[in-house]
Design brief:
There is one protein chain. The protein is mostly beta strands. It contains no helices and 34 strands. The strands form 12 sheets. Strands 7, 9, 11, 12 and 15 form a 5-stranded antiparallel beta sheet that branches. Strands 20, 22, 24, 25 and 28 form a 5-stranded antiparallel beta sheet that branches. A hairpin with a 6-residue loop joins strand 13 (126-128) and strand 14 (135-143). It is rod-shaped and about 165 Å long. 25% of the residues are buried.
């Protein structure tokens, strides 16, 4: 009778017989629950012929391959490509080849295989990683004892966020290695905005146009800042541009009288905000809608910035005599009209001087008044 209950730690055999000049065997399948060299010494074999002593052997139990993954880079801008590398390590130590390597990695929502997957596989087998899909898999792989292999696939996430990626288990002829996990940190592009210091100015007057680059949501610097702003037809760079920036480095191009402002080569630290400022002049009356080109940087494309400058006309200045025909010595009322109805701005500091022509003087009783 063989007694060998599944999951128990004992095997026993009783009441058996082996004929003279013969050999017999007792077999039981066993499973190791830990790795290492497991020395197994039985109790004595006894029989009608006496005590045969014990039997010994050792079972070397090696672990399944280690399974890890890593994103490189692990922090980048939204829409940029990171290489996801899976490592299968069969050297810890191992004396058996790992065959039938297989796993499936269902990428987290919002992350997909890049349009150019650039698959690299030195684990043999078949890697499936289709552009735009949310899954990467390996089947039929192999890694010899004492070595490691890798699989690399380019992935991309379009939106900012922290993407925790845990694969399915790696299985092989050596058992279940479990899943692999890593995190990809996707930063938003800097926020790009612009504003005029004075939302409305008089024709020919100046105001300061300020571009704001806000990298405060990001934990990495944004470098290679670049944008071009083609001003609307009714606005140009002031004769004295007074161009300045609080960004790090970079070059501002803003020539007096030009219709374009550009900035390139600058950078902004993680968690910071910086500005680029240039004085501009209104050259045509009306609402001047100003949409810049895209701001690009090492974190990707931030899009355009918009602002509107309203350029108003100066007051209209007219005068009239009433009556405009008089007899010598009589009086006429001279009325000056200042018409600011075409403007959304008050006109202050009004001032004029009227040198009357020879033989025309202010009346003895001027009756001067103003509205």
């Amino acid at each position: 009778t063989i007694t060998a209950t599944g999951g128990s730690g004992t095997i026993s055999y009783t009441g058996g017989t082996v004929a003279a000049s013969s050999i017999c065997t007792v077999q039981v399948d066993v499973t190791a629950t830990t790795t290492g060299l497991l020395n197994n010494t039985s109790g004595d074999l006894t029989s009608s012929l006496g005590n045969s002593d014990s039997a010994s052997d050792a079972l070397a139990v090696v672990p399944p391959p280690a399974f890890t993954k890593v994103f490189a880079p692990d922090t980048l801008g939204a829409g940029q490509v990171s290489t996801l590398t899976f490592t299968i390590d069969n050297d810890r130590p191992a004396t058996l080849d790992a065959t039938g390597l297989a796993f499936t990695d269902n990428l987290p929502a919002g992350m997909v295989v890049a349009s150019s997957p650039n698959v690299v596989n030195n684990c043999s087998g078949t890697v499936t990683a289709n552009a735009g899909s949310g899954s990467i898999s390996l089947t039929g792989g192999q890694q010899l004892a004492g070595g490691a292999c890798t699989i690399a696939v380019d992935v991309v996430a379009a939106a900012a966020g922290n993407y925790t990626n845990t694969s399915g288990d790696l299985t092989s002829s050596m058992g279940n290695s479990g899943p692999a996990t890593d995190v990809l940190f996707v930063m938003p592009q800097p926020v790009f905005a612009k504003s005029f210091a004075d939302p409305a100015i008089a024709l020919g007057f100046e105001t300061t146009l300020t571009f704001t680059i806000d990298n405060s949501p990001s934990i990495i610097d944004a470098t290679a800042l670049d944008f071009t702003d083609n001003l609307p037809a009714g606005v140009q760079v002031a004769a004295t541009p007074a161009a300045s920036t609080t960004c790090t480095g970079g070059t501002i191009t803003a020539t007096g009288g030009a219709g374009t402002i550009s900035y390139s080569g600058g950078s902004i630290a993680a968690g910071a905000t910086c500005t680029v400022a240039v004085n501009v002049t209104g050259t045509a009356v009306g609402a001047q809608v100003n949409t810049s080109g895209d701001l690009t940087s090492s974190l990707g494309n931030s899009g355009t910035a918009n602002a509107t400058l309203t350029v108003v006309p100066q007051p209209v200045f007219t005068k009239v005599f009433a009556p405009d025909t008089i007899n010598l010595g009589q009086s006429s009322t001279l009325t000056f009209t200042i018409d600011n109805s075409g403007s959304i701005l008050d006109a202050s500091g009004l001032e004029f001087t009227d040198p009357l022509p020879a033989d025309l003087v202010v009346a003895a009783t001027p009756n001067a008044s103003t509205t």
